[in-house]
Design a protein that fits this description.
heterodimer; A: Ubiquitin-like (UB roll); Fumarate Reductase Iron-sulfur Protein, Chain B, domain 2; two-stranded antiparallel sheet; B: 3 helical TM bundles of succinate and fumarate reductases
Amino acid sequence: MGADGGNLSVRIWKGGAGGRLIEFEAPQRANQTVLDVVTWVQRHRDPGLAYRFACRVGMCGSCAMTVNGKPRWTCRTHVAKVAQDSRLTIEPLRNLPIVKDLACDMTVFFEKWRDARGRFEGRATRYDDIECIAPETPARQAVDAGIECINCAVCYAACDVVAWKPDYLGPAALNRVWTLQNDTRDAAQAERLAAVAGEAGCHNCHSQQGCTTHCPMSLNPTASIAGLKRAVFMAALRGEV
Amino acid sequence: MIRPHRHQPLWWAFALHRLSGLALAVFLPLHFLVLGSALNGEAVFDGVLAWSDFGLVKLAEMGLVFLLALHLLGGLRLLALEFLPWRDGQATLAAVAGSASAVIAFAFLFNAI
């Protein structure tokens, strides 16, 4: 939990891709989150510091940053848990272009959701009855296991394959696709499977499980991607992809 | 430098699988060279094989057996991960593969000396 008192030595990334770390002193507080520290620095030391946040309760996925080398949601990361000798190094997320300071350009992240056809495409109209989905079916349980993604891009920043192959769709988009492939109401599963079977698709994953290790929602994108690999393999045997 | 986000067992499993594969690929030409010496007659082949009686070569062979077992067992884990329904505990399975490889390598060494 940590107690009030003392100072933190905080190094924060300033500038764009060619920027550098600037050192600040910030007061240490009980129950302080990394986002609290960034906000204190902006309000008391550097009003020009750019960063992104919204809900502050781990729902919106806006405030992810690299903290002491690991991607984390900063609003739910306690300083006491991650500071090393009262030192913090806070950088923007890896694998995304930097807009300024700690704010990343998320465009490519969401473009990959679009390219992977990560949008629900239903077949029912407003005049149809609501379809009953039994919660105990394996398909629905697979959906439930992956559905709570908050789009924070922590998994995307943790993924070495994205770093090595920037076209790779990445764990978040593929996890989303796996939930849709198991959604019995969806009508575009064949097209979606084709979208993730290609050069930038699921077979790039090396199963390092960096995404699973760092996901703040404790999701398992590696398991979702493995499911997609099996689905693509079976579809290939049937000559469908 | 190993970046902090890679400090987790399955990144090491990945790295060791990749490195053992590369090391085995580097070894293959040597393996073919030894086998190819048989084309020059039994005596030449036996002469080359006699090298394996040296202690250092035995140790190198043990390393080779370790790499082979590691790559094989690690590969089986990955095949199971990709083709069978998901099971948790992949880090434990990777650790079992690594430990079993070490046991196999030492068993080879004790059998060889």
